[in-house]
Predict the structure.
Amino acid sequence: METETETDQIYHIDVGNLLGFNPNHRFPSAPSSREELVKECLEEARKLVQAIANALFNFPSTETNDGPIVQLPPPTTKLPREKHVPRPKPPTKWEEFALKKGIQKRKKDKVVWDEQTDQFKRRHGYDRVNDDNDVPIIEAKATDEPGEDPFAKRLDEKKQRVGKQQKNRLQNLKAAEKAGALPSHVQLAATSLPISGTKSQPKKIGKDELGDVAGLAATSTASGGKFDKKLPGEKAPKKQGKHHKYLPVVAGRGAVNQEKEQTNNVLSKIISKHSHEILNVGKAINMYNVKKEKKKSGRSDKSGRSDKLKPKKDITKKPTNKAK
Amino acid sequence: MMEIRTPKTGKAKRVLEKRAPKLVETGRKTLILHGTKTSATVSSVLMELYRLKKGGAIKYSRRNENIRPFESGGETSLEFFSQKTDCSIFVYGSHTKKRPDNLVLGRMYDHQVYDLIEVGIENFKSLLSFSYDKKFAPHEGTKPFICFTGEGFENVPELKHLKEVLTDLFRGEVVDNLNLTGLDRAYVCSAISPTKVFLTHCALKLKRSGTIVPRMELVEVGPSMDLVIRRNRLPNESLMKEAMRTSKDKPKKKEKNVDQDAVRGKIGKIYMPDQKLDEMHLHDKSKGRKRERKESKLLNEETDSKKNKKSSE
């Protein structure tokens, strides 16, 4: 938009931006004093502002509590956009199918008439019409196997349907992302792939575990991680190395000698464990009984064995006195 | 394996929707930051610029050593900040021996650097040094007038570029309706030489004049400085083409209370407000407005005209 002033200069005015441009003014190349220059600039600007205001105040205005409100025209200076133009979303699989078959969208009511209870019930949510979980009896068909649980089967089918729906949703979103038209509130994040090739998800490492691992790594420094700079929020490492508990050297007044007790406990434990190997009680009893019987019936009944079986003493050999 | 992540709270959802690309754009948010070393002038310029643009600007206070806007690798930090804060125009101040009191103004397209212009600051006067009647001090967040004077803005390409960037910087929000009482500031840019621009910020005084349009007067309030053009980088052609692409028309607003029917045609619903029969004003019973009088007057005029016709024929 251009306007002419008395001095026959044409200004470029953009009311939408409250912008005014005077391309015809020539500032003196020989610099006058700074104040003069500033004054000149302000005067020129004042003329421009007046020109814009002339246009602005002549617009039809509506009166409100805060003051007169004017409808601004759209700005005429072309400025680059800050973000790209929103791209159109590619049709989803269902939308393509519906287009092909000519299926129209029908608006469904939130409340539906329920035949069984003769009242209006909501379509989705608590106490809904035709709830799958509410059927008390499922009649057996000829095609049913005897061992199958039809209720579990229904639950299974529902899970399958839900899973299939989620998969389809993911496919649609992926296609939208490819076209650059992902909806603003959705983000697709690639969860990490397991290295081993199994389908199991890698376990997420917790805060405590991270702290332990960090402590472990710190011990590999020259001073064993003692003088490392701690990050804000990092906790002190748990006690590293062997955990010793030393008993007091001198027993206190009235206190039991703890070290003696400790060693006694250890010894009794060992003995009680191996006590069956130290003394064979059964054998000892037998030996004792045999000895007793021998003593009883030992004088009368010498060994029942005959003389023939005993080794014969050689009378020719003289007793040698080895110990001289 | 892909996972769909959606915001769990309404607030988060609204924030994401605000940041999404729109068909018709409102103004840009400004990011103000400074480099490794800043002089007193540069830091006060940045501070005052932040104050002027309070509603739509974010100021970072730390030093940024790895931002070099004109080098190819030095823009990554800027782009990251732009994405984080959703700012698409930035002002980067620094001070080196080679380039004292340096200010780099840059714009982003899709969070990538679109164009840059580097200016040096001379003769800076802070807004604290101006004394004026505080009644006319401009309020925060008002839409400013922007005035460019000088043939340099048309002839010299660097100044043309600077004009565009300054318009984008000072524009504020793009609005449909403007309150005429809220006009109280103006930015004055004058091309005093092919390389120098004098920039100042003024408050507006609206004085009573004879007509509807008040007489405008400018009072210098804000910071004033001389900008010396140093370097600039224009956007590359393809990016410029894409960024300048505008949608032809606004999306059709759904017309409420209007229905199209095959049988009855176009039908509109009118909602009547409650008629308070107790407080209704009946017709004016004052003397001059009695209906009978009016009707008789009309009848007389008709008979007169008929008589005139008859006589003329």
